[in-house]
Design brief:
heterodimer, A: mainly alpha, globular, B: alpha+beta, Sulfite Oxidase, Chain A, domain 2, eight-stranded mixed beta sheet, five-stranded mixed beta sheet, 9 helices, 15% helix, 20% strand, binds protoporphyrin IX containing FE
Chain lengths: 211, 336
């Protein structure tokens, strides 16, 4: 992968990330249709769903990279992760401003008393340090701690899926599908980690036992 | 004897604007309008009373079929108290909960064309002297259709204002002569996987079922509904015959009714069977009684736009003056 091609792919990914927002914005002003009978819900759901999708894509990068050997994929991870963060932020802002009209009291009640909002809020809060430390400089500075910190993304994904599961009225098929995908990605990482441990152990044994 | 005469209302006068955008509908509506007599064909009390209810099995005198689309003619207007704007036909028909056609809000509008509303019959059973299976036309004969503007509040905290067309449920139920043991009425929706793709998934217990106390069912606000915006009900809104109970959450207003059962004990209802803690038998609109997972204090008005605010929800959806007496002595926080 040449540097130029990678820059091109990155640009394309950024454009793709902007598409859902552009779709909502265009329709909000009447271009290409409207947002339906309940536009606030349409915007809320589009941002929430896009955010969760991007989060899962971010989580899928490493397994795909390892399985395919396409190491340059890792260069897209930060873009996807930040896009996920921005969509979830927009999702929460849509709720607070457009849906609830910044009624602080009821927002506080929601965060404290409504479990699906509580876990969503927790996920959003946990995303903030990851977004803040997403720069190269931060990555260099934190070293191993950066890797440990960014493992939080799994917890964030699970919290997001639980949020989805707890908010649907009765048809849980879609949130369960998300949970299944998350379980697969997490399972891959666990298996991969154990494999590496075993290899390390074998290497040490080989070094220690004289031939 | 029904006499055909040309309609005296142009379809364009009462047909909602948006229907004109759909070519298929215009064609059908024009056809129906041309063929149908206008005023109150279903309504007019023949000879000042109701005809005898004859079950289909006894070869009913099937008269002219109830139309599948088109204008319902001159309607009695009903004195309403709705101060809010009427929701557009477009929004009422494209944002539906009708899980038999999918759980997405726009699924019913996309999928409900497979519902066959003609011929339609309703089976009446249980604690009543007159039971059997009756043609829709025979059930409607003698009832005067009214254009009733009602508030409609969904348990999901959105609402709309709808010009339904129908007649009081109680007027029909009385004709079956319920016995003294008829304390409740249960209703069932059609359950046919061939016409309803959604019933292949066990999201709810099919057939969809709902129920009322007999006093609720006899209340003059409880409306058996056959139309919307002066026209035959679109399939996604529960054609050809649905219930509208405006002081209760929308899921109580069961769609596409094929069975009515008079019962001594409280009947099973689909949402209550799915989650009794979240959906009670009464399910009266009540801003003080939150759904366990979300607030019921306010509601989002459909069609009000991206920057509209929620409005306060009213006890019994604003019909407290009319219906509160049904619940005297009942603790509404416990009996939700
Ligand atoms: C402060 C944080 C959050 C708040 C206040 C919030 C609020 C909401 C609300 C009110 C809904 C709609 C519920 C309904 O329609 O009944 C919703 C839906 C949703 N949210 Fe969140 N949310 C938050 C965080 C998150 C996070 C972190 C994620 C994912 C990682 C997420 C993903 C979703 C998804 C996927 C939906 C469902 C969309 C659909 O049904 O199409 N949300 N959220």
């Amino acid at each position: 992968m040449t540097r130029r091609n990678l820059a091109l792919i990155k640009a394309l990914v950024i454009v793709a990330c902007v598409v859902p927002f552009a779709w909502v914005a265009a329709r909000a002003f009447g271009y290409g249709g409207d947002l339906g009978a309940n536009p606030v819900q349409m915007v809320l759901h589009t941002f929430g769903k896009t955010g969760l999708n991007l989060l899962i894509l971010t989580l899928a990068i490493t397994p795909i990279r390892k399985q395919t050997g396409l190491n340059w994929l890792v260069a897209l991870r930060r873009t996807l992760g930040l896009a996920a963060f921005f969509y979830i932020l927009l999702h929460a802002i849509t709720y607070a401003v457009l849906d609830q009209g910044l009624a602080w009291q009821s927002l506080l009640v929601d965060v404290a008393m409504r479990p699906y909002i509580t876990v969503g809020f927790l996920a959003l809060v946990l995303m903030v340090p990851l977004a803040v430390t997403s720069t190269n400089a931060m990555q260099r500075r934190l070293k191993r701690r950066w890797v440990q910190l960014h493992r939080l993304v799994y917890l964030i994904g699970i919290l997001g899926a639980v949020h989805f599961l707890w908010l649907v009225k009765i048809d849980v098929s879609e949130p369960l599908l998300y949970m299944g995908v998350l379980a697969l990605l997490l399972g891959y990482r666990v298996v991969d980690w154990r494999r590496r441990q075993q290899r390390r152990l074998q290497a040490r044994q080989r070094r220690e036992s004289p031939a | 004897m029904l006499i055909k005469r040309p309609p005296d209302i142009k379809p364009s006068e009462i047909t909602p604007e948006s229907a004109f955008h759909r070519r298929r509908d215009i064609l059908k509506a024009a056809l129906a309008a041309g063929l149908l007599p206008a005023a109150n064909a279903w309504g007019q009390a023949i000879g000042g009373g109701f005809p005898e209810l004859v079950p289909l099995a006894r070869e009913a005198t099937r008269h002219r079929a109830f139309p599948e689309v088109g204008n319902l003619g001159d309607l009695n207007t009903w004195p309403h108290d709705v101060e809010r704007e009427t929701t557009s036909f477009e929004d009422i028909t494209n944002y539906n909960n009708y899980y038999e056609f999918g759980t997405g809000k726009t699924d019913p509008a996309k999928n409900a064309h497979t519902l066959r509303t003609h011929p339609w019959s309703v089976t009446v059973e249980g604690e009543a002297d007159i039971t059997g299976t009756f043609a829709l036309e025979d059930l409607m004969k003698g009832h005067t259709l009214e254009d009733r503007l009602y508030r409609f509040r969904c348990v999901e905290a959105w609402s709309m204002v709808v010009p339904w067309v129908g007649f009081p449920l109680g007027d029909l139920l009385k004709r079956f002569e319920p016995t003294s043991r008829a304390n409740y009425v249960q209703f069932f929706t059609l359950n046919d996987a061939e016409q309803m793709p959604g019933v292949r998934y066990p999201v709810l217990r099919w057939p969809y079922r709902e129920g009322l106390t007999i006093a609720e069912a006899m209340h003059p606000l409880a409306l058996l509904t056959v139309g919307l915006y002066g026209q035959v009900l679109p399939n996604q809104n529960g054609a050809p015959l649905r219930l509208i109970v405006p002081w209760k959450y929308g899921f109580k207003s069961i769609k596409s009714i094929v069975r009515i059962r008079f019962m001594e004990r409280e009947p099973e209802t689909s949402w209550n069977m799915a989650n009794a803690r979240e959906y009670g038998f009464y399910s009266n609109v009540n801003p003080d009684k939150d759904h366990p997972r979300w607030s019921q204090a306010t509601e989002r008005v459909l069609g009000a736009g991206l920057f509209s605010s929620r409005i306060p929800t009213r006890l019994f959806n604003g019909y407290a003056d009319q219906v509160a007496s049904l619940y005297t002595g009942l603790d509404l926080m416990r009996n939700y």
